[in-house]
């Protein structure tokens, strides 16, 4: 459990549509890309496609790194399955609100069962805020 002040900063900073850099490993080479993400309770949630390069890389090695807005972290990524599966309904509803600006812009095919929910469970990180450094262990 991280200290409450750090959790509050994470929620304020990333508990909405946030662009983060997500790094995976492609063989021995790092591969990074920007993704839209939403933070809640020690994890980031991303809508993506199950057959994407990032998901193939995560399938081989679920260890990932992220960076965004004075925050870096490591985590474990997992495919939670089809975005609108019953078990994902509550998070899908929260993401639809958080990502409202672009959610229905046609970029994603929500009828495709390969449109999935990716969860990045954070393991450790470094958060900076107003001169305070928070070393985080989730």
Automatic annotation (TrEMBL):
SUPFAM superfamilies in the cross-refs: FMN-binding split barrel
InterPro entries for the chain: Pyridox_Oxase_N (IPR011576), Split_barrel_FMN-bd (IPR012349)
Domain Pyridoxamine 5'-phosphate oxidase N-terminal: 14-80
Matches recorded under Gene3D superfamilies: Electron Transport, Fmn-binding Protein, Chain A
Protein name: Pyridoxamine 5'-phosphate oxidase family protein
Organism: Candidatus Alectryocaccomicrobium excrementavium
Upper classification of the organism: Bacteria, Bacillati, Bacillota, Clostridia, Candidatus Alectryocaccomicrobium
């Amino acid at each position: 459990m991280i200290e409450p002040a750090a959790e509050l900063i994470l929620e304020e900073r990333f508990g909405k549509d946030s662009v983060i850099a997500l790094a995976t490993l492609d063989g021995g080479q790092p591969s990074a890309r920007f993704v839209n993400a939403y933070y809640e309770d020690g994890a980031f949630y991303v809508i993506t496609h199950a057959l994407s390069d990032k998901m193939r890389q995560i399938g081989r090695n679920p260890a990932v790194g992220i960076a965004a807005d004075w925050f870096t972290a490591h985590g474990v990524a997992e495919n939670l399955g089809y975005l609108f599966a019953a078990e994902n309904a509550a998070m899908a509803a929260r993401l639809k609100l958080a990502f409202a600006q672009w959610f229905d812009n046609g970029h994603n095919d929500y009828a495709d069962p390969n449109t999935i929910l990716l969860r990045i469970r954070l393991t450790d990180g470094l958060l900076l805020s107003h001169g305070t450094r928070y070393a985080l262990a989730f």
